[in-house]
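Q: Structure tokens for this one, please.
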Amino acid sequence: MSLVRLRGWLVDLRDSLWLLPAVSIVLAVLLAIFLGELDQPAWWPVGWGFGGTPEGARAVLSELAGATITVVGLVFSLTVIALQMAAAQFTPRLLRTFLADRRTQIVLAGMLASAAYNVAVLRVVRSSGDGVDTYVPEIAVTVALLLAAVALGLLVFFLHHVTRQLRVDLVMAGIAEQTRHQLRQLDAPRDQLPDRRPPVPGAAASTVSARRGGYLQTVDVDGLADIARDAGVRLRLRPGLGDSVSTGTTLAWVWPDGADAPEGAEDVDLDRRIHAAIHLGPDRTESRDLTFGLQQLTDIAVKALSPGINDPTTARQSVEQLAGLLVDLADRPLGADLVEDDDGQVRAAVPRPTFVEHLQLSITPIRRYGRDEPDVLLALTDLLTDVAEHVADHADRSGAVAHELDLLAACEVDDPDEAARLERRIAAARATLEHGTRPALTSG
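A: Here is the predicted structure, written as tokens:
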């Protein structure tokens, strides 16, 4: 098993809803076995623990186990409702984010562990008779009562948390923060602009077909470069992170250093090693996929603009979050992940979107579906003005901003006052793009 695939599976396990509860149940049972056989030590204060009879201990543990399992059912129900509302009101792309929420996993783990612990301690409680002495594990039952108090606190916390999860402004802020976390891992100086682009395979290039389908989640770029060096070829992946790959389609191109066809292009070992350096999963993840966060925010805005919801305020808030992310992206070099040899020639390349492509992904769908909403068009204009302050000195990026402003100016607004406001804002954005500084607006 390759390290890349192992890391991909570990990410899937980390984001699953069952892993942490399963581990907590095992630990709770082990703790119950240990405490159940532990005699009362000398340091244990008299009268601090459970002092009832075996029947009383069984009654307490049974009631606690049943009540906790009932509450767990309530938590699961609320979680499913939150997932349904998130998919219906925001975007289905948020489901993985909700399932991976660590606080929800901790609540479920704590409650299930408490229930499993109570059941495990029950087997230790003994009544006298048939040669068996009465035994009540005082420490174990006392810990069960403490765990019940913890489970109650977790329930109160979960009710607070699940209501926060359904607040769209907090959801969008969480998406933006996760995207910034991925962006910080790609931090590089501004002097590396323009954005990097992958090399174009020549006529001598051969293809490597995908053995399986899925979304490209992780890639070992350095590993691909080592594979290419060993085979005496240069290599470029076709999909970028987050792209879908169909079985049997082109996964990568390889071509020789010189003009001859690469002898190893059809080598089974080369094919296997390339597949071992990537991980294809059933869905997109946030792992190093910057466009996924932008896609989620764009989807929320488009969903809010649908006739069934008609919530331009949420769309505007989504645009505001996108503005902050695009400003952060504007100060960083983007584009393909490249590994170069000592001679400066690209040995391996993995395509990634440029800044212009990120900009188009963020704005085009919202402009298309919000062209009749002046507030949304104004928010998009403000977004482009924010970005213009950071890209005025870069021809490629400033040209993309100017093009988007032209498209906004072509949108027809029925209200004359709103149309005039939009025209003034677009003029201010163009002035910002020309001079690099934002002009002060006297009105609107």
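A few notes: The mean pLDDT is 87. The first helix runs from residue 3 to 14.
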